[in-house]
Amino acid sequence: MKIILVAHGKLADEMKNSTEMIYGNVPQCSSVNFYNNEGFDSIQNKLKNTIKHSKEPILIMTDLFCGTPYNASCAISIEMRDRDIEIISGMSLPLVLEAVSMSSNGLTEVVNHLVDLSSDTVKVFSQVFIEEEEEL
Does 126 score more than 90 pLDDT? Predict the structure, then answer.
């Protein structure tokens, strides 16, 4: 499975860099950045160029639901219906790490796991601290 990170600014590159700090080289992962001076068409072209080199199923992880990176990814998915492409928004380092660690699994399995896991990636210190104190 190929993983493409798509986000505003340099977030996609930095998310990949952070992943590589933990896992080392992750050749199954690519990043696509979206800058102020770019539009919908430019990010679509970047995505097409990244996708055309891969024959594998593709997981696109975007930063914001309904943001330009997400919308462009959806347009590509519709245009390339013959390809196995899935898109999720709400990209975070824990989810990217999990996706990379599972990249040898099936696309549907990975997506379902990430959706299930997503609610566990946000923690509130005061709530965790109180729960831990109550357990003692």
Answer: no
Give the DSSP letter of residue 47. H
Predicted TM-score (pTM) of this structure: 0.90
Distance CA 111, CA 88 (A): 8
Q: 């003692």: which residue's tokens?
A: 136
Query: 3-class SS at 2?
Result: strand
Q: Which residues, 6 or more positions from 16, have their beta carbon under 8 angstroms from its beta carbon?
A: 5, 26, 29, 30, 31, 96
Q: Let me know: does 35 contact 11? Beta carbons within 8 Å.
A: no
- Which one, of 54, 59, 13, lies nearest residue 32 by Cα? 13
Distance CA 80, CA 69 (A): 16
Q: How many CB atoms lie within 10 A of CB 124?
A: 8
> Is 8 assigned a catalytic role?
yes
Catalytic hit among 5, 6, 8, 134 = 8
